[in-house]
Automatic annotation (TrEMBL), chain A:
<dbReference type="InterPro" id="IPR035906">
    <property type="entry name" value="MetI-like_sf"/>
</dbReference>
<feature type="transmembrane region" description="Helical">
    <location>
        <begin position="105"/>
        <end position="126"/>
    </location>
</feature>
<keyword id="KW-1133">Transmembrane helix</keyword>
<keyword id="KW-0813">Transport</keyword>
<dbReference type="GO" id="GO:0055085">
    <property type="term" value="P:transmembrane transport"/>
</dbReference>
<dbReference type="InterPro" id="IPR000515">
    <property type="entry name" value="MetI-like"/>
</dbReference>
<comment type="similarity">
    <text>Belongs to the binding-protein-dependent transport system permease family.</text>
</comment>
<protein>
    <submittedName>
        <fullName>Sugar ABC transporter permease</fullName>
    </submittedName>
</protein>
<keyword id="KW-0812">Transmembrane</keyword>
TrEMBL record, chain B:
<dbReference type="GO" id="GO:0005886">
    <property type="term" value="C:plasma membrane"/>
</dbReference>
<dbReference type="Pfam" id="PF00528">
    <property type="entry name" value="BPD_transp_1"/>
</dbReference>
<keyword id="KW-0812">Transmembrane</keyword>
<feature type="transmembrane region" description="Helical">
    <location>
        <begin position="246"/>
        <end position="265"/>
    </location>
</feature>
<dbReference type="GO" id="GO:0055085">
    <property type="term" value="P:transmembrane transport"/>
</dbReference>
<keyword id="KW-1133">Transmembrane helix</keyword>
<protein>
    <submittedName>
        <fullName>Carbohydrate ABC transporter permease</fullName>
    </submittedName>
</protein>
<feature type="domain" description="ABC transmembrane type-1">
    <location>
        <begin position="74"/>
        <end position="265"/>
    </location>
</feature>
<dbReference type="InterPro" id="IPR035906">
    <property type="entry name" value="MetI-like_sf"/>
</dbReference>
Length: 305, 279
């Protein structure tokens, strides 16, 4: 076979650097981490324990309480993004794509600015603004006569997670806005003109014509939000520290993984349980992606123009 | 036709909503930058006022520049970001060219393999990455960060660039082949210049998460001399929590470089996003 066709070495040369770096730094560590989660320290050194780490994680009260707490918080974090971030992003994009809107480029640039800021900046800036010491938030509420509503939101167990989720929404609303904006621009004018001929304009045009056409983009945004949220760590770490206070009420899987693997204060780091948590996160993300790919994406109807 | 789609009332409502959200988006940045130029008393007495001459004070900035090695941090961030970006773009473009140009066995499979990394975050491999870096003696070096970020950026770069490379005309490449150009020359002199807009989009998407990352600097390179600006400002702020002048000045210093880069590239970024979708 090789005699029939010369080996095309240039293909290998083009592919090699990317494949090597990607495999060595991404795929092998990922497999290594999954593999490590099957081991633990035993009486005679490190030994293979099968799925025992996962059994501990899901069932042993010392671990499972934290794990289910983190998972529940993470689910709530994701839910807020789906219910607040994506609708606001879609609404802003729909308004931005109004034909002949002046200053659209300015709005687009400005609304995307929080997205480019680092979590360190976002976390601290909001901590300062919401701080009862500085008083910007109570002062602003006072302006509209709602000062009584103010509470130290980041310090209260019942509000802290929701507040952080809303800060994250504030930061990332630019992403759904941009992607939906691009999708809306790609709807051909003929379709919209045909709708106008039939008397469908304004809001009903959005609901009946545009929304069905951008559903695939909304699907992509949902899965990106899912992967991003179940991988989140930085904002919580910056705003509340690795302990994800108050009383673990803002603990999500990322902070739980960090604490378990590297240890904190009195707890020692545990690479085996840390790997088990990373393995569980891997499973959750994979499950979510599969549900999307096979359950949702295949049912979305695509239109070709 | 245009009249049917727009009316004065709706235009005003649209602007009102967009202005409201723009204010919400920019307000925290505004408050931080404005207060970083004020004296401590003015920060608390009147947080929303502009830094008029009577409270203008650079004490925050002088503290920051004296205490933290912000220029060093900034330099580290620049080296890591630029080097990772270079490797992501070069290796990503090469792989994308191989996948989009040649038909060979396992092409589709290789594409799927490289795209896997878009969905599965590299952070989940942190435990093993740290072990590899310890074994290779790369802990607390910028090389470790560059390697990780290159791997992290490649999947998306290959995916986007191969979509764009499919649009480069075959006739052009074949003309090059007839003129005796090697495959490498075709890639570097014909194809790369033509996909420059796509490269810019990929550059922006790759750059932002690298510049802002806290996780890998915290784990792989926490030593003072290799701290990135994101980690450096996080640690600095942690130590100076009660010195509000210094905290606000440090935050402003961290905001400015990204903001400037974004404003330079924003036109390109938006064009890239919309062009990708139109296809």
């Amino acid at each position: 076979m090789a005699a029939r066709k010369p080996v095309r070495w240039h293909i290998a040369v083009f592919l090699a650097p990317a494949v090597l770096v990607y495999t060595a730094i991404m795929i092998i560590p990922l497999i290594g981490t999954l593999n490590l989660s099957l081991f633990n320290k035993g009486p005679d050194g490190v030994q293979f324990v099968g799925l025992a780490n996962f059994a501990t994680l899901f069932g042993d009260p010392r671990w499972s309480a934290s794990f289910w707490n983190a998972l529940g918080n993470n689910a709530w974090f994701f839910l807020i993004h789906m219910l607040v971030q994506n609708p606001i992003g879609i609404a802003l994009a729909a308004i931005l794509s109004t034909p002949k809107l002046r200053m659209a480029a300015f709005y687009r640039t400005a609304i995307f600015i929080p997205t480019i800021l680092s979590f360190v900046i976002v976390g601290f800036v909001w901590k300062l603004i919401l701080s009862p010491i500085w008083g910007i938030a109570p002062g602003l509420l006072d302006l509209v006569g709602l000062k009584s509503l103010f509470a130290p939101w980041l310090g209260r167990e019942e509000y802290a997670l929701t507040t952080l989720a809303l800060i994250s929404v504030w930061q990332f609303v630019g992403i759904p806005m941009m992607l939906i904006y691009a999708a809306l621009l790609s709807i051909p004018d003929e379709v919209l003109e045909a709708a106008e001929m039939d008397g469908i304009t304004g809001a009903s045009q959005f609901w009946k014509i545009k929304l069905p056409l951008i559903l695939p983009s909304i699907g992509i945004i949902s899965i990106l939000t899912f992967v991003g949220n179940f991988n989140a760590f930085d904002l919580i770490y910056v705003a509340q520290g690795a302990l994800a206070g108050p009383d673990f009420s803002t603990d999500i899987l990322g902070t739980f993984l960090y604490r378990t693997f590297f240890g904190f204060q009195l707890q020692l780091g545990d690479p085996y349980m840390g790997s088990a948590i990373a393995g569980a996160m891997f499973g959750i993300i994979l499950l979510g992606v599969c549900i999307y790919l096979f359950g949702i994406q295949t049912r979305l109807r695509r239109y070709q123009f | 036709m245009a009249r049917a789609r727009t009316s004065i009332g709706r235009t005003i409502a649209a602007h009102a909503i967009l202005i409201t959200w723009t204010v919400i988006a920019l307000f925290p940045v505004f408050v931080t930058v404005v207060n970083s130029f004020k004296s401590r008393r003015a920060i608390f007495a009147d947080p929303l006022a502009l830094p008029w001459p009577q409270h203008f004070d650079l004490v925050g900035y002088t503290t920051v520049l004296k205490q933290g090695d912000f220029f060093g941090y900034f330099q580290n961030s620049m080296i890591v970001t630029v080097a990772s970006l270079f490797f992501v773009l070069l290796f990503g473009a090469m792989a994308a060219f191989a996948l989009s140009e040649y038909r060979f066995k396992g092409n589709l499979l290789m594409g799927l393999y490289l795209a896997l990394g878009i969905m599965i975050p590299i952070r989940l491999g942190t435990v093993a990455i740290l072990q590899i870096m310890v074994a290779g003696g790369l802990v607390n070096t910028l090389t470790a960060l560059i390697l990780v970020y290159t791997a992290q950026g490649l999947p998306l770069a290959v995916f986007i660039l191969s979509e764009f490379m499919k649009t480069v005309s075959d006739d052009l490449k074949n003309a090059g082949r007839i003129d005796g150009l090697s495959e490498y020359a075709i890639f570097f002199t014909l194809v790369l210049p033509l996909v420059r807009p796509a490269m810019a989009t990929v550059a922006v998407f790759t750059m932002i998460p690298i510049w802002n990352d806290l996780w890998f600097p915290l784990i792989l390179a926490p030593a003072e001399e290799v701290k990135t600006i994101t980690l450096g400002s996080q640690v600095f702020i942690g130590q100076f929590v009660t010195n509000w002048n210094a905290v606000l000045a440090a935050l402003s210093l961290a905001i400015l470089p990204v903001l400037v880069l974004y404003l330079i590239f924003s036109r390109q970024l938006i064009r890239g996003i919309t062009a990708g979708a139109v296809k």
